[in-house]
Design goal:
Length: about 200
């Protein structure tokens, strides 16, 4: 196999929701952002705007405003997630040392919102994978959710993001302070040749 190490990183990545009280070093931060910037994008437009947040007060604000909605945008508590056999439990957790917000300009994207969202998702996934490969632990937190538009509005207000931008998600990153959960892959969803 050409690059088994990469395959192993992709397969072993899991969401981490508890972090050590330790800053992410600048060189690692630069590498994970570079990996985000290397993602594929529709029309090759590289539409992402990436907001790197290390200010603890802003990170706390982003999390607390999500909590005030009293609906799941909270972090899932991993231990309880296991206890309840897959039933998600959303709870307050300690803020991560680093938050990376991914946004993109809707007006400049040829009216192709789907393409913009897919491109931003590629960027986010690259950052999650690179974080994992470098020994960091990360979790995607939804921002844009059509059933809960208030979350995106709040995040835009807190970060002063121009209105025409989509904010797809934010990635909480740090040194892991928990063992990631195993998960069962839904291999039955693979179809061959036709549905
Ligand atoms: C678009 C998207 C939004 C997510 N939002 C949240 C979230 O708000 N809170 C959270 O704890 N996890 C969130 N996650 C992480 C998922 O819960 C997680 O990926 C899933 O449970 C599978 O676990 P794994 O990442 O360990 O493989 C999100 C993931 C994606 C892709």
């Amino acid at each position: 196999m050409k690059n088994k190490a990469l395959i192993n990183e992709i397969k072993s990545r899991r969401s981490i929701r508890k972090w050590k009280n330790k800053k992410v070093p600048k060189d690692l931060l630069k590498t994970i952002i570079d990996c985000g910037l290397s993602a594929p994008s529709a029309y090759g437009a590289q539409p992402w705007e990436i907001i790197v947040i290390e200010d603890k007060k802003i990170i706390e604000k982003l999390l607390s405003d999500r909590r005030q909605l009293k609906k799941p945008p909270y972090f899932i508590n991993s231990a309880k997630y296991v206890d309840k056999l897959g039933k998600e439990k959303y709870e307050k957790v300690k803020p991560p040392p680093l938050m990376i917000v991914i946004a993109g300009d809707q007006k400049e994207y040829y009216g192709d919102t789907g393409g913009l969202i897919a491109s931003l998702a590629c960027c986010g996934e690259n950052i999650l994978l690179a974080s994992h490969a470098l020994g960091l632990g990360a979790c995607w937190l939804f921002v844009r959710d059509d059933s809960m538009p208030d979350v995106e509005k709040e995040v835009k207000t807190i970060l002063n993001i121009p209105s025409q931008h989509i904010v797809l998600g934010m990635l909480a990153v740090g040194y892991p302070d928990e063992t990631a959960l195993n998960k069962v892959l839904k291999s039955k969803k693979i179809h061959h040749n036709t549905w």
